[in-house]
Each structure stands twice: as C-alpha cells, then as structure tokens.
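Record type: monomer structure entry
Structure origin: computed from sequence
Chain ID: A
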Amino acid sequence: MSFLILSGATRIRTPASLNHRVYADRLGVEYLFDTTPGPLHTALDQKLAAVRRALPSHEWVFWIDDDAFVTDLQVDIRSFADDDADLVLCASPVNPEGGWTFVSFGQFLIRRTPAMFHLLDAVLATDLEQVRAWWDPEQYGIFTNTDQDALVYQLACEEAPWAEGWRRLEWQAFNSRPYHYHQRLDEHVLCHFVVPGSPSKMELIREFAVRMGTTTALVDPELLEPYATFIANSDLAELLGPPRAQSRMPVGGDARAASRESPPPPWWRRVRGRGHMGR
C-alpha cells in the first residue's frame, strides 16, 4: 500500500513537522510538509490543495495539521484505514467550554478514489455563506466558518458519490486535546492543539511539553539526533528550543522545578554550534 503522511501550511509556525517526520520514519512511510505556493482563496485552502496534489501518487494519504502531534509512536495510523471507507475522520471531543464539532478536519485518512477527488473539489468550491444558512448547531455543533464546515455540508449530501464512503470515529481514535493528558504522552495517540481561549499555539505547545517533560516536537531529544543538521539550518531551531529535563512532573508537582533545563544532549550542542543559517 502506497501511504503518505502529509502536512503543510503557508509557513512553518510549530515544530510539528519534526514530530511527523520522526513518526513516519519509524513506520517506514513517506512524509511531506507541503508549503508549495498556489492560488488560494484562504490560507486554509493550502490543506485541500496539498491533498489534491499528493493523492494521485498514493493509495492512502494521512493528513495531519501543523498544530497536531503524534504522541504514541507505537500506534500505526494505517490501522485506522477502513476497507469499506474512502475517508476516515474523528468526531471532536467536548471542550472545556462545552463546545464541540461534528468532525475534525485537522487529521484524516483519505483513499485515492474518484469519489474523493470529487469531494475535495466540492469542498473547495463550497460557499460558506450557504453553509451558514443551512447549519444546524444542534446536529453539527460549532460553526467554525472554515473548510471543516464545508466538508460537513458536502458529507451530508445523500445523493453525492461519496455519501456512503466515509466513516466517523470517536475522538479517542486520533483527535485528543492537551487537556486529556495527565502524565504521559502515550496516554493518547495524537494531540491536536485546539483549545478555546488559549494563548498562541507555541505557548500552548511549550506549556504542554514542559508538563510532559519533553521537547516541543513532543518526542524525546535522542529521536531528533538524525535531524540535527536540518534543524540547525532551519527556522525549526528557534521553535524547538533547548530540550527540557526528561523527568516527568508529578501530578500536583512544582511546574517551575519541572521546567528547569537539563544539560543539552550532543545533538543540541551541535545545533547551537552551527548557528542559524542567514543570521
């Protein structure tokens, strides 16, 4: 099975691509972070454009947003691919404010079929004002005014060629949030940093990394060793930051003590020794 883990954006704003690459290499599958310029109506269209470009050459694509991280590296995301479905998504959890969405379009599995190409094109062409007028919050939850709502609108079309070809899993499959974690990264498969009223994405990720006692790529420092040269010569170095101590903070423990920096591992010293390209 030709399988691609795919992410992307119009710019690099988190270290998620390092997390994705470590995970893809462990699975032995391809990974691509797509920043290819193109004619977009909104920045969110980069996702649909990237999937549309990648799908012709892969039987399955797993899209993962650039603010989502795999936290249990032992779980094979391919195990969620469904022989009877061309699109596999998760429902959203109920957030601390009581909000929820029908599905999350932040990560999903999609199979190369004619129906899925038609669906991607239909979502791109959808008028969100028409979706807003149609939207039923009791049935579909929060209206986010994004491509996610356009997707829900199209999935609800009973006469469409994709009507019977998609599956919605519970959020626990691969759509957890940082507030679901207590002590260990492997408590859930994937963490999507979508929290209402939260600070910036990187602040949220840094706080979570400190709480879990790991890097902001949400993998242990030694797993980043093979990528040290790339990190040193990219914007990821500043986003990654010095590795934190690897001891986990006990529940109810001292966050300040847990966040103290330990002596950096060899790969981080090499990163800082090389400096940042262009600086």
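Annotation 1: The chain is about 30% helix and 15% strand.
Annotation 2: Residues 59 and 275 are 40 Å apart (CA to CA).
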